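Researcher: Re-running this chain for the archive, since the previous output was lost when a drive failed. Same request as before.
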Amino acid sequence: MSVPFDPRAPVVLVEADVVGPVRTVRVTLALDTGASGTSIRPRYLVAAGYNPAASTRRRNLRSATGGGVAPVVNVSAVVCLGRVRTNLPLLAHDPPPAVTYDGLLGLDFFRGLVLTLDFARGRVSLDPPRRLWQFWR
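Model: Regenerated structure tokens:
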């Protein structure tokens, strides 16, 4: 499955669903292969039924805009690019005020899959790896 993105935009944005105990929340995330983990604004976690303030787990953050410590919340599932990750630990973090998207889709979501960014066509996909024998068909 591939989804469109604007190849002229400063970031690649994708839609994701965060599944919570209360409801599923749709968010817009920036693809960030430089981020080891996925992060989301705390208010969306709260809307889905999680309580980031009650989390006993914290993780250090380092970014181009500074650093800090963020609560870690394990969510039931995140659905994005046709893939589902269950029990995914998300960092509850508000990006700087000028940022208009809701968080970052990091390496933890991409691991074990093939991420393809086609800037010529403005498409992004996340697929399972192909077995070597598939290339000979």
